[in-house]
Design a protein that fits this description.
Layout (H helix, E strand, L loop, with lengths): L15 H14 L3 H16 L5 H9 L4 E9 L6 E10 L9 E6 L7 E10 L2 E11 L2 E2 L2 E2 L6 H9 L1 H6 L5 E5 L2
Antiparallel strand pairs: 1-2, 2-3, 3-4, 4-5, 5-8, 6-7
């Protein structure tokens, strides 16, 4: 399988997500099945946001819930192995209480946790999810913790989230609910 690299304008060339995905793509092109599985898991996780009920999302938004757990599963096309994971969507309340920034937390068993940040815009019975930036954390003893979004990336994203979004391979996800 040959995957093309992610390209963005010079303005965004140092973005963490781009760097990470391009490293992953190099591994995939070298035949690394674990990297391919990780990329599929990231993509499936982003798509899994569609399963969130608007009522639950509004509770998260208002602070009535601290996190939403979402089940994701997909079958590896190469091995037929079923991959099942739980992911956690949390509101970034503590550091930026007035901004619609949410964090999707992924637990990869083989290495450190990873998190993808979203800018979420809500309107009547729907919400748009935009991929913001990607960070990773370290394991410290037996305690896993999440690194906060770096301030420079946050400021850059906050200035123009929709333009920032347009540079990513995943694009946006729009959810409509009945």
């Amino acid at each position: 399988m040959n995957v093309k690299s992610v390209t963005m304008s010079d303005k965004y060339c140092n973005d963490e997500l781009e760097v990470y995905l391009n490293k992953l793509i190099l591994k995939i092109n070298d035949g690394d099945n674990n990297a391919l599985r990780e990329l599929r898991l990231i993509y499936a996780s982003i798509l899994a946001i569609e399963s969130v009920k608007m009522n639950d999302f509004n509770k998260l938004k208002s602070g009535l819930r601290t996190a939403l757990w979402i089940d994701i599963s997909f079958t590896e096309p190469t091995t037929g192995q079923k991959i099942e994971q739980k992911l956690q969507l949390v509101k970034k309340i503590q550091r930026y209480p007035h901004d619609p920034i949410y964090e999707l937390r992924l637990n990869f068993k083989s290495h450190a946790f990873r998190a993808i940040f979203f800018w979420v815009i809500t309107s009547f019975m729907r919400f748009n999810v935009y991929v913001s930036c990607f960070t990773k954390t370290r394991h410290v003893d037996t305690t896993d913790y999440y690194a906060d979004i770096c301030y420079a990336s946050y400021c850059k994203f906050k200035q123009n989230p929709t333009d920032y979004l347009a540079k990513f391979m995943f694009g946006g996800i729009t959810n409509g609910f009945t």
